[in-house]
Amino acid sequence: MSYFSYQHGALYAEGVPLADIARQFGTPVYVYSKAAFSDHYAAYATACKANGRSERDALVCYSVKSNSNLAVLNLLAGLGSGFDIVSGGELQRVIAAGGDPRKVIFSGVGKSREEMRLALSHDILCFNVESIPELHRLNEVAGEMGRKARVSLRVNPNVDAKTHPYISTGLKENKFGIAFEDSLATYRVAADLKHIEVTGIDCHIGSQLLDDAPLLEALDKVIELIDQLATEGIVLDHLDIGGGIGITYADEKPVAVSDYLNRLFARIDAWRREKHGGAPIKVMFEPGRSISGNAGILLTEVQFLKHGADKNFAIVDAAMNDLMRPAMYEAFHDVRTVAQRGEEAKVYDVVGPVCESGDWLARQRTLAIAQGDLLAIMSAGAYGMTMASNYNTRGRAAEVMVDGDKAHLIRKRETPQELFALESIPR
Ligand code: LLP
């Protein structure tokens, strides 16, 4: 289902015309669909239940980095979601949004002592640890606090996720995780540390995966390791397969979340029956993009049209600082006109006002537009606002959440004064 669709020639977010949102809140503005977030989350939650038996022991930990607005986190918390965080800041967001810290897992290669202390003080579910020095630091911090830290080791299964090199994380050459061949030894170290309780295993092989074959390959490797560990008396109670399922930006056909989860659970169930007398194991996921990506768009207004001999440019009021993905990864985002009109269609590069040649949002798009028109940059709900910056002293965009026929402002547009409020001139 599309949550952003044309009705009588005008583009809507659910039941609200995008033109009304631009009028009320200005542009550029991120617009989210509440129903889209709920439905995308439900695809995971439902597949976790649908196994013909009673409810599974499974937890979906939404990856906060993909879209971390408090309203989004609050919505997902209300649906029962856990959260995958990568900083103390993200933990504070989850708590401020009413999320349950006991459903939080903490990923990332460089956790500071302060972040560890904060997470331990909120008794989070688990730290996903990525190296031996991190284990020692966590052991020390937990010891100082008189606590035990629940730990999962992020192993690197060396599987080719076949995605963009910048967002592939499961190969040997990546900075992430513990090399597969070192994982047994690292588990032994962890098991000997007094303030560490080894509870799980996790991996994350990359993002925007269209096929689940690499994920199932990673699962097979993880399963093998869990069995090996058990022979040494290290018994894990959960496995976390990470995030990664991709979305449609152009004409990609990603595997359906339900098909992927059904295949994954079928393998897990077969393994548990065969080797563990059917004893269940808790299964966790860390999806980001597949929940937030197509739940949001970036709405922008055409400032000027520049028609040249070689190229036409549509200069809009959104820029690379609002949506970094095209400049950073040459990512494709579909561009739709908010009002379908009868102008002559021309081929445009859609660019922003930032002083960089790399400041483009879309290239070579056939658009029938005039100055003052509104454009929707599609599939911008994930890694859009969360990666935005203030380059060129541009305040970050406002954010609006649409719920049926209501539009709620969920983040105000930043003012220039707010941007330099923390600065001072030495006297
Ligand atoms: N878990 C871990 C440990 C991760 O590193 C990531 C994403 C996720 C979960 C969520 O993955 P997802 O389900 O969203 O694929 N900025 C890039 C994407 C970077 C992804 C980094 N890790 C982009 O805009 O495409």
Automatic annotation (TrEMBL):
One of its GO terms (biological process) is lysine biosynthetic process via diaminopimelate. It catalyses: meso-2,6-diaminopimelate + H(+) = L-lysine + CO2. Belongs to the Orn/Lys/Arg decarboxylase class-II family. LysA subfamily. Its cofactor is pyridoxal 5'-phosphate. This is Diaminopimelate decarboxylase. Keywords: Amino-acid biosynthesis, Decarboxylase, Lyase, Lysine biosynthesis, Pyridoxal phosphate. The active site is at residue 355. It comes from Noviherbaspirillum humi. It holds the Pfam family Orn_DAP_Arg_deC. It is an enzyme of class 4 (lyase). The modification N6-(pyridoxal phosphate)lysine is found at residue 65. Homodimer. Residues 57-292 form the Orn/DAP/Arg decarboxylase 2 N-terminal domain. Residues 30-381 form the Orn/DAP/Arg decarboxylase 2 C-terminal domain. Specifically catalyzes the decarboxylation of meso-diaminopimelate (meso-DAP) to L-lysine. The keyword Magnesium does not apply. Pathway: Amino-acid biosynthesis; L-lysine biosynthesis via DAP pathway; L-lysine from DL-2,6-diaminopimelate: step 1/1. Substrate binds at residues 289, 325, 329, 356, 383.
